[in-house]
Amino acid sequence: MAEPTSSGDSFSVLPISIPPLPSFPFPATHHVFLRRNAKILTAEDSRSLFLVNVPVDSTEAHFRAVFASLVGAGRFEGITFEHDKRATNSSIEPAQAARLAAHSKKRKREDEEAQRAQEEAAAQLPPAWSRPLHRSGSSAVVLLADEKSVESVLKAVKKLQKSKKFPVWGEGVGDKAPPLGPQWLKAHNKLSYPGSDAMQASVDAYFTLYNKKEVEAADLAKRMRNEPDEDGFITVTRGGRIAPAKQAEAEEAKRRMLEREQKKRDATQNFYRFQLREKKKAEQAAFLNRFQEDKEKLRMMRERRGNFRPDR
């Protein structure tokens, strides 16, 4: 693989030596581009690195060995690949439950979150590949032990350009990653036909979680429906539908609820209408006073300018 001419101002280049393979019996160099994670949303983001152009056969064991060769063991905590993010974002929640869940203000307890994570994991279909491959040029986020480890990695990557001792891909991995080649395809053929017991357990867990979220969405919609509006009235409805069935209705319900909360906050500051009128009158009076003061300053400046006589 040819070495790139430039990597951009914010990226550092991490060259990795690819040993010869039976399918390509020549040594090669693969370039991974890395930088500090620009999205600082949590405390962990400050000690993470954003990687681009990871090898297609990347695994956590591979990058653990690469970072160990750069800064030693104990600095690398984990890696999240691009396909892992897509799998996390894909939810089995009903569309109605997913929209209404945004209205909930109660924070879940840790044990409830752990139980929900276990239920969602059980509801997923059995994996069909023993080792997933990545698309060419995909990205990943590496989590390190601390911010000092981030600095150490970036400094070690810069030194590689001088020493030319690049990390060897797959060195130190051993049997920590499932093998590719014919064994990988055989394992895929076997995993593509799971047993009926495993499939039935996955389907049962899926619908159990689905029904549970439907009930939660219905309870949440009922609480939202019984909230009074800005005038203090509660709308009484009839019929079997207890939650918005369309996205437009859900968005409209969210907008009305946010407006009610804003009006409640404003009402605590200015409860009566006469207070608003008095406040506006005070603002107008202050504006007129400032106008008169500026007008007087301008008149005095003109008088001083008229009395000025330059020396000849």
TrEMBL record:
Where in the numbering of this chain does the Ribosomal RNA-processing protein 7 C-terminal domain appear? 191-310
Q: Where is this region: Disordered?
A: 87-134
Q: Per the similarity annotation, which family is this?
A: Belongs to the RRP7 family.
CDD domains for this protein: dRRM_Rrp7p, RRP7_Rrp7p
| Any Pfam family | RRP7
User: Which cellular component, as a GO term, is one annotated location?
Assistant: CURI complex
Domain of life, per lineage = Eukaryota
User: Can you give the residue ranges of the Rrp7 RRM-like N-terminal domain?
Assistant: 11-187
Query: Which GO biological-process labels does this protein carry?
Result: ribosomal small subunit assembly; rRNA processing
Instruction: Show the ranges annotated as biased composition (Basic and acidic residues).
Output: 109-119
Q: What is this protein called?
A: Ribosomal RNA-processing protein 7-domain-containing protein
